[in-house]
Amino acid sequence: MMFRFSLLFSLLAHCLNAQNIINGQIFTPGIAIVDAPQPNTPLGGDTLQVALDVSSDGQLQLPPYPANPVSAINNITIYLSSYTTGKNFTISNGTAGAGNASLGAIMQQEPGSTVKHVNWVWPDCLVGDGDPTGSNSSRGVYNISIRQNFRLNGTDQYTIFDLPIHVTNNIPKEGIRPSCDALDNPLIDEEALVASANNFTRIAGTAIQTGGTGEGLGKPKPDAQPKDGLGGAGAVDWRTGIYCAWLAVFVFMLTL
Ligand SMILES: *[C@@H]1O[C@H](CO)[C@@H](O)[C@H](O)[C@H]1NC(C)=O
Ligand SMILES: *[C@@H]1O[C@H](CO)[C@@H](O)[C@H](O)[C@H]1NC(C)=O
Ligand SMILES: *[C@@H]1O[C@H](CO)[C@@H](O)[C@H](O)[C@H]1NC(C)=O
Ligand SMILES: *[C@@H]1O[C@H](CO)[C@@H](O)[C@H](O)[C@H]1NC(C)=O
Ligand SMILES: *[C@@H]1O[C@H](CO)[C@@H](O)[C@H](O)[C@H]1NC(C)=O
Ligand SMILES: *[C@@H]1O[C@H](CO)[C@@H](O)[C@H](O)[C@H]1NC(C)=O
Ligand SMILES: *[C@@H]1O[C@H](CO)[C@@H](O)[C@H](O)[C@H]1NC(C)=O
Ligand SMILES: *[C@@H]1O[C@H](CO)[C@@H](O)[C@H](O)[C@H]1NC(C)=O
């Protein structure tokens, strides 16, 4: 019995890291908070819209940051990728493409705003309505893959956060749609991606140290050393969330 309990509790402890949505705000493994869209939402329309609070609800100032900041977001890149459809489109790699087919630096847009509204025109192969039809459709399940290069409490981090969505609503043919081929990138396997990112979980609500040149850390530290410790990508498996919810119910019943 005790063994079963400790096993379940260790599984549950793992689950707590798995997802962190508070009042509709998704706390990424990083500084940014996703205000929209919610996971597994069916999306369509003219553009894909993502709202990112890069101040973490006002905890961190906007750029320009002080010299040698203790915490900062260096940059954010975003891709729309799917192992199911085999596509990996650039939403923003920091350099705007012709006609903003891919977007410029996210952190530099809307300079006075803590929420960056990413507004990306769906490329041509996603035009359609409803579920994918046939095996060569590019519509269907995707991740909005949000990559943050940031510094938190004096430690440099790089994390990947995959937010699942369904590209199944109507995307009209009208308007100028960028070519999918021009935005597509090779897919990298999941294991390599996990190994390329830091294993970091931000506990929602915890403070962020701000200021420059080591302020808040006691003595200034020789920094600019990206921390080693390559670990897992901060990806969220939303199925895990459901599994964890059931696990919690089960644990609760055992305690009755
Ligand atoms: C979304 O990302 C997760 C890892 O973060 C991966 O397991 C899953 O297969 C991806 N989904 C798609 C549709 O590629
Ligand atoms: C993002 O920031 C990191 C760390 O400063 C840097 O190495 C990388 O080149 C930057 N990437 C982009 C796309 O700006
Ligand atoms: C691209 O986006 C930037 C930033 O939102 C904007 O200033 C610029 O006018 C846009 N360029 C085009 C060609 O739409
Ligand atoms: C799928 O691709 C094949 C080969 O490229 C093509 O012959 C076929 O018409 C395509 N089907 C659809 C529904 O686009
Ligand atoms: C950014 O993405 C666009 C579209 O995929 C690509 O053409 C361009 O080479 C990329 N730039 C960099 C610096 O990776
Ligand atoms: C998508 O392409 C970008 C740019 O090459 C790469 O950094 C990213 O890891 C790729 N995503 C996946 C899921 O392979
Ligand atoms: C950052 O520092 C604050 C204040 O010391 C602390 O409460 C918080 O847990 C730290 N965050 C991380 C990720 O270490
Ligand atoms: C990530 O860190 C957590 C706790 O710090 C640990 O339990 C987990 O095994 C790590 N994951 C990987 C892939 O290293």
Automatic annotation (TrEMBL):
Signal peptide segment: 1-18
Keyword annotations from UniProtKB, A to Z: Signal
Stretches the record annotates as Disordered: 211-230
Record's keyword annotation contains Signal: yes
Protein's name in the database: Wd40 repeat-like protein
Species: Lachnellula hyalina
